[in-house]
Design goal:
The chain has about 450 residues and is α/β, with parallel strands linked by helices. It has three domains: about 160 residues, Rossmann fold (3-Layer(aba) Sandwich); about 180 residues, 3-Layer(aba) Sandwich (Rossmann fold); about 90 residues, K homology (KH) domain (GMP Synthetase, Chain A, domain 3), CATH 3.30.300.20. It is about 35% helix and about 20% strand. The strands form three sheets. It has a six-stranded mixed β-sheet, sandwiched between helices. It has a six-stranded mixed β-sheet with strand order 8-9-7-10-11-12, with helices on both faces. A three-stranded mixed β-sheet has the order 13-14-15. Helix 9 links the parallel strand 11 and strand 12. The longest helix has 18 residues. The termini are far apart.
Length: about 450
């Protein structure tokens, strides 16, 4: 039986290097790093090994105590509240300071952490090559058990920090000795990315699905910056949720931090099995929604349109049917994508959404035998023959499925240069209609048939 992994939390005021240390200890670039203070807002978690012992490593938002009455500072207040909650749930806290940059904010933070001293390790960051170590010794006055001088960027003394972390967790009986890496493999979880424009309810839905408060929720657009992972179980299946930053038009993205956030949101489409595109039901489908859906489809990632805030839509007879028909009319290229009305706030429709994710994922893993697929191809070409003009003529000789998740088929065609996008759409639509791929994107790869390759060789 697995024991719960110990929670190691990185904390400190903004711009002391928490995310840089998080990435170093996680052995991957998981958190966004930027010189701008306050980049991290949500608590970001990952499992990593510290001296071969598994831990849950958590990067918290920067702790800012001075707040004015504006959107940014109201968000900072939410970050502080979330950070304090995370600290109290920690098994060990790594409290970071920046060399030579001690402020009243640091002192107030220390006073808040003082009741947690027994599980706190203090570190002065950015001391590469002995930089500002003498000046930083003044922190001893706060009475920390350990005061380490490290460089998260260059790796100085990080190994010593890992040794102390392991030693403190062992002494507290928190090392997970019953964790077994080679225990029987469970079925792979279904990975869902929650994606869409800012303020469509992605974080609220993420928290609803995972029964947690892992994602910071605010009416202020742009609250989420990093990708926040969560997990849940439903009908005996495991799911991983990826809550992403809101994606705005390129012309409106004017900060480096938002640029990285948007890029990470788009990249989740490569790692996800299913994309749930949240659309504000009160606003309807936008051009930006279309662009996001197209990004997913091009990668072979299925899309489910989640009409969020459905509880706020005035009740009208056949209202959902009318809105669905309008969405199909405005975006016929994605007519295959399922549409589900949900309310992330109340939970209405969330079970139907998960049921739809399972159905879509089942299609994503479907495979067709080559003989069956070629029987389909022969029949489809009879029912709707390819162009037959002297310069436009081609024929599909045979085909096969080359992958599932994403679903891809390879077609061997005579005169592939004459192949048309319109005929490709016809084949993809017939695959959806006849072959069990009604709710997912289908990608086609065109290659010259053996006869065509032989003819081209002779012509050379």
């Amino acid at each position: 039986m697995r024991c719960p992994l110990p929670r190691v939390v990185l904390a400190g005021r903004p711009n002391v290097g928490k995310s840089t240390l998080f990435n170093r200890l996680a052995h991957k670039r998981r958190a966004i790093t930027d010189p701008t203070p306050g980049v991290t807002r949500d608590a970001i978690e990952t499992r990593t090994l510290i001296l071969d012992s598994p831990v849950t490593l958590i990067d918290t938002g920067g702790f800012k105590l001075d707040h004015a009455d504006n959107d940014e500072d109201r968000l900072d207040a939410l970050v502080v509240e979330r950070t304090l909650e995370t600290l109290h749930s920690a098994d060990l806290i790594v409290l970071l300071f920046s060399a030579g940059e001690f402020s009243a904010e640091d002192e107030e933070f220390v006073s808040l952490v003082r009741p947690l001293y027994d599980k706190t390790i203090a570190c002065v960051n950015k001391t590469e090559g002995g930089r500002l170590v003498a000046e930083s010794c003044a922190l001893h006055r706060f009475g920390f058990k350990e005061l380490l001088f490290i460089s998260a960027e260059h790796g100085d003394n990080v190994a010593e920090l890992c040794r102390i972390v392991h030693e403190r967790l062992s002494a507290a009986g928190k090392i997970c000795l019953s964790f077994i890496e080679d225990e029987p493999q469970q079925e792979e979880p279904i990975r869902i990315t929650l994606i869409g424009k800012p303020n469509t309810g992605k974080s609220t839905l993420s928290n609803r699905l995972t029964s947690s408060s892992g994602s910071l929720v605010s009416e202020i657009a742009g609250t989420t910056r990093d990708v926040i992972e969560g997990s849940l179980s439903y009908k005996g299946r495991r799911f991983i949720t990826l809550d992403t930053a809101g994606i705005r038009r390129k012309t409106k993205v004017n900060e480096a931090i938002e640029y990285y956030s948007v890029n990470r949101a788009i990249k989740t489409l490569d790692a996800a099995d299913v994309a749930v595109l949240l659309i504000d039901a009160l606003e309807g489908l936008s051009e930006q929604d279309k662009k996001i859906a197209a990004q997913a489809s091009q990668r072979g990632c299925p899309v489910i349109f989640a009409l969020n805030k459905w509880d706020l839509v005035p009740p009208v007879k056949n209202g959902f049917t009318a809105m669905s028909d309008r969405l199909r009319f405005l975006f016929p290229q994605m007519a295959w994508a399922p549409i589900v009305p949900v309310s992330a706030r109340t939970g209405d429709g969330v079970v139907k959404l998960l049921d739809m994710v399972i159905k879509v994922h089942t299609q994503l893993l479907r495979r067709i035998e080559t003989s069956v697929f070629n029987d389909y191809l022969e029949r489809w070409q009879i029912e709707y023959p390819p162009p037959s003009g002297p310069s436009t003529r081609f024929k599909i000789k045979y085909g096969l499925q080359i992958s599932a998740n994403p679903v891809m088929f390879k077609l061997f065609v005579s005169r592939p240069r004459a192949w048309t996008e319109a005929y490709g759409s016809y084949i993809a639509n017939r695959l959806r209609k006849d072959a069990g791929y009604s709710m997912i994107p289908v990608r086609l790869e065109i290659a010259p048939s053996r006869e065509d390759r032989h003819l081209r060789k002779k012509q050379r």
